[in-house]
Write a structure and sequence with these properties.
- The complex is a heterodimer of chains A (249) and B (589).
- With 249 residues, chain A is mainly alpha-helical.
- Chain A folds into 2 domains: 2-217, no CATH class; 219-249, no CATH class.
- In chain A, 43% of the residues lie in helices and 0% in strands.
- In chain A, helix 3 (67-80) packs across helix 6.
- Chain B has a single domain (3-170, 177-579), classed as FAD/NAD(P)-binding domain, CATH 3.50.50.60.
- In chain B, 22% of the residues lie in helices and 18% in strands.
- Chain B contains 13 helices and 22 strands.
- Chain B is of the alpha/beta class and 589 residues long.
- The chains are: A mainly alpha (249), B alpha/beta (589).
- Chains A and B meet through helix 6, helix 7, helix 8 and helix 9 of A and helix 3, strand 5, helix 11 and strand 19 of B.
- Chain A: Pfam families: Gluconate_2-dh3.
- Chain A: This is Gluconate 2-dehydrogenase.
Chain lengths: 249, 589
């Protein structure tokens, strides 16, 4: 419970910190083109002192995402899964860190995908036919969405109000926005799937801090043997402190 | 270019259940046997140790134990008028890779197919006449019947420590078992697994409706067990990490710790892992296999001469090697002739979700891969084909297999997919949703087949296998009929809401459905409609044998592993008792 109680102020500070060091530049201080150009210079967002972070947990250091991308991801995942009285938000559970690591992994680099041409548009039933790896697709999708948002709202996605962020994600989900580089549906689903995976995966992978999503839904984790419980707990609530992989090592 | 190696007696391609069983059974011959496995060596320790093996992201989402598509994949289209495109990401089915093959990550549903399921053509025609068979359906008998396979089914159950309850013991019907099963000589080696709450409800509801529920035969051991080979299986923990995972308890039978270590008792047996077999090489008359060409982990090419070649890869691997090696006549859709690649079939997964009242706790995280209660009342040839307008059936069941929440986080229809409304819905629904599923048979058709793709090549430069498949009217009717039965059962179970969707869309390769692919190297009595004779021997190249579900003429409404194992044991006997004594064609065409 400590984690959950601490999480919200941390989130606020994290956002404030990002703005302070420059990611917030995309909120309108700089012209839109300049913010986009910053994409390739993401390192400028990172060397800030850790002192800005409150007490017990370090500010996440992203391996893959640059500052603009990180700001987008943090805003998007917290729109998908916002903190409320039902349970924690995706950002406070480390889902941005999870996504960053996944994009930088063999999975993100498409190491088990077939990526040889020719690349031809197929039917929906034939599945993914782009030459992009998940990481490349993700990166291009953020550029596309931010370009759209800048055009319409004169700021980047992370600087939008909650209401506007919900509106943009809803339009993406309904394919009411046509992204120029990346098919809207594919980008939306990738962002959505990674968010859900990070929220619910074992904390080993960087998200689901404190196993908070497992506690929220009542999933008792990965370490329980139920041979002597399955009958005893028929139609009864089974309670236990969830165990994760690291808890059991 | 290839380094030529010293000859061996037997080359086996693929080291899952099929290849593992054959290798183990032939160990006593002392012959020089090399088994080629495209994936890595695997052992329970260190590969499947808890807690790391209980990693949903790694195994269930990132598919650690599944075929690497970067190296080889296939192309897909729904019908012959389309251009096939590569399967670039995993989806519809998940072929295994590594020692043990799909046997490491299967669920453990371990069936004997029914008498009719081995004789679908003659069984159907005897009851309904020839006119019931649609013109484009390749309805075909197995060349052997259930009774020939029964001893092998029995043997495979004992090796796996299958947990279940007989419903037909030597012809005597037993309540509580599957009264529709074919007669078995012996009871299951282990008693059934313990039922979860939804299974208890399902069983009672099915009985109320006059059906005959029984525990799914499960190769998840219900108690500690030592099989006839002296291999110990642990008791199933019901840990809920079974399908897609290796089992740290050795409770889920898998070739990597049962038959394969016993194959290694033959000092002349060798498993070459991380080795991709590219091709079977034939002599100049194309009547005899002389060697296989393979690449090792470093990409070096070797030629391994062998007197006998056994293809025991997954369905797609067997068919691909046959086509690429030009063994047998490839199927030609336009002419409707040829046999290799003909009669590919799949399976349909349908049914309903059932939402119960707020105080219900199904505890979905307590479960095992094959934990389920099932009815066969509408499976096999139990439905009235003439009245219902389809041939085939489906097994209807409710089980408890996994509560891991990346994959299992149901919400009622109409709920938002994200945001505060979603979170509320997922929390309110997690414990009180269950499912009544239908696993439907799929017949074979002229227009559903495998051949070589004209455009795409795999990373080794070979033409890819091309899959052409779509659902047909017969299967839509079965699915719709079964959905109605599932809904009735769910209501009878006490569901507040029964959630189902009528879907007559085209087959899509994108969402996971089932790894129960069949056909392409069918065995039969007629070389015009089968690639193999009844002994699983190529009609054309007599020192090539093929084993696996690629030999099934069409698919049934139940899992394929039982008959795959039984056929592998039978093949080993055929080789030991006949072929190796006198290597020749075992059936004249």
């Amino acid at each position: 419970m400590t984690d959950e109680n601490n999480a919200e102020p941390k989130t606020v500070n994290r956002r404030a910190w990002l703005k302070l060091i420059g990611a917030g530049a995309a909120t309108g201080v700089l012209p839109a083109g300049a913010a986009a150009a910053n994409d390739s210079m993401g390192a400028m967002h990172h060397p800030a002192p850790k002192a800005a972070s409150p007490a017990d947990e370090p500010v996440p250091v992203y391996e893959f995402l640059n500052g603009d991308e990180a700001a987008f991801v943090e805003a998007a995942i917290d729109t998908f899964i916002p903190p409320d009285e039902v349970g924690p938000g995706a950002l406070e559970l480390g889902v941005a860190v999870f996504i960053d690591r996944q994009l930088n992994s063999g999975y993100g680099r498409g190491d088990r995908m077939y990526l040889q041409g020719p690349f031809i548009e197929g039917t929906p039933e034939q599945g993914y036919q782009l030459r992009m790896t998940p990481s490349e697709l993700f990166r291009n999708g953020i550029l596309d969405v931010n370009a759209h948002v800048r055009d319409k709202y004169k700021r980047t996605f992370d600087a939008l109000s909650e209401e506007d962020r919900i509106a943009v994600l809803t339009q993406l989900e309904k394919r009411e926005i046509q992204l120029p580089t990346v098919p809207t549906e594919i980008f939306f689903n990738l962002l959505y799937d990674l968010t859900m995976q990070g929220y619910f995966a074992d904390p080993l992978h960087g998200g689901n801090k404190g196993k908070a999503s497992w506690k929220m839904i009542g999933f008792p984790g990965i370490g329980v043997m139920y041979a002597d419980k399955i009958e005893a707990y028929r139609n009864k609530k089974y309670m236990s402190e969830p165990m994760s992989i690291q808890d059991l090592l | 270019m290839a380094t030529k190696l010293k000859p061996v007696d037997i080359a086996i391609v693929g080291l899952g259940w099929a290849g593992g069983i054959v290798a183990k059974e032939l160990a006593s011959t002392g012959l020089k046997i090399v088994a080629f496995e495209r994936g890595a060596p695997r052992a329970t320790n260190p590969d499947f140790m808890a807690p790391q093996v209980h990693d949903e992201l790694r195994y269930s989402r990132r598919h650690e134990l599944i075929q690497n598509l970067r190296k080889e994949t296939l192309t897909f289209r729904n019908d012959p008028s389309q251009r096939a495109l590569p399967m670039r990401q995993l989806g519809s089915f998940l072929p295994g890779e590594g020692v043990g093959g799909a046997g490491t990550h299967w669920s453990g549903l371990h069936w004997r197919w029914t008498e009719w399921e081995h004789k679908m053509y003659s069984g159907t025609v005897a009851k309904y006449g020839k006119s019931i068979v649609p013109a484009d359906m390749n309805l075909q008998d197995w060349p052997i019947d259930y009774h020939e396979l029964e001893p092998y089914y029995d043997k495979f159950e004992k090796v796996c420590g299958t947990s279940g309850k007989a419903g037909n013991l030597q012809g005597k019907k037993i309540d509580g078992g599957n009264i529709f099963e074919a007669p078995r000589a012996n009871e299951f080696p282990n008693p059934p697994l313990t039922q979860s709450h939804n299974m208890v409800l399902f069983e009672q509801a099915a009985r109320n409706l006059g059906y005959h529920p029984f525990p799914v035969p499960a190769s998840n051991a219900s108690r500690p067990y030592v099989n006839p080979d002296g291999v110990a299986l642990g008791q199933c923990h019901y840990c809920g990490f079974c399908t897609a995972y290796g089992c740290e308890a050795n409770a889920k039978a898998s070739p990597h710790f049962t038959v394969i270590p016993l194959a290694h008792k033959n000092p002349n047996f060798e498993a070459r892992t991380n080795s991709y077999v590219m091709k079977v090489n034939l002599d100049s008359r194309r009547k005899r296999a002389v060697s296989v060409t393979y690449l090792d982990a470093g990409g070096r090419e070797f030629e391994q001469p062998a007197d006998l070649v056994i293809l025991a890869a997954y369905v797609f691997g067997n068919v691909h090697l046959m086509l690429h090696s030009k063994i047998g006549k490839p199927f030609d859709f336009q002419r409707n002739s040829g046999v290799v690649g003909r009669s590919y079939a799949y399976q349909s997964m349908g049914g309903v979700a059932a939402l119960f009242s707020k105080d219900t706790y199904f505890n979905p995280f307590m479960g095992s891969g094959a934990l389920g209660t099932w009815i066969d009342d509408f499976n096999s040839d139990n439905p009235d084909f003439a009245k219902l307008g389809f041939i085939g059936g489906g097994g209807i069941s409710s089980g408890s297999n996994s509560g891991a929440p990346i994959g299992r986080r149901p919400t009622p229809p109409g709920s938002p997919r994200w945001g505060k409304g979603w979170k509320k819905a997922v929390v309110e629904t997690y414990h009180r949703m269950t499912a009544v599923g239908n696993q439907g048979s799929v017949m074979s058709y002229r227009q559903n087949y495998l051949d070589l793709d004209p455009t795409y090549t795999d990373s080794f430069g070979r033409p890819m296998l091309r899959l052409t498949f779509d659902w047909q009217e017969n299967e839509f009717r079965q699915m719709e009929f079964a959905r109605g039965i599932c809904a009735n059962i769910a209501k009878e179970m006490g569901a507040e809401q029964v959630l189902s969707r009528r879907d007559r869309g085209r087959y899509s390769i994108v969402p996971y459905q089932t790894t129960h692919n069949t056909g392409g190297t069918v065995f039969g009595d007629d070389p015009r409609t089968s690639a193999l004779n009844k002994h699983l021997q190529s009609w054309d190249v007599s020192n090539v044998f093929v084993v696996g579900s690629s030999v099934f003429p069409q698919n049934a409404g139940r899992n394929p592993t039982g008959p795959i194992g039984a056929l592998a044991y039978r093949l080993a006997d055929t080789l030991k008792d006949r072929y190796l004594k006198r290597p020749e064609r075992l059936v004249s065409a």
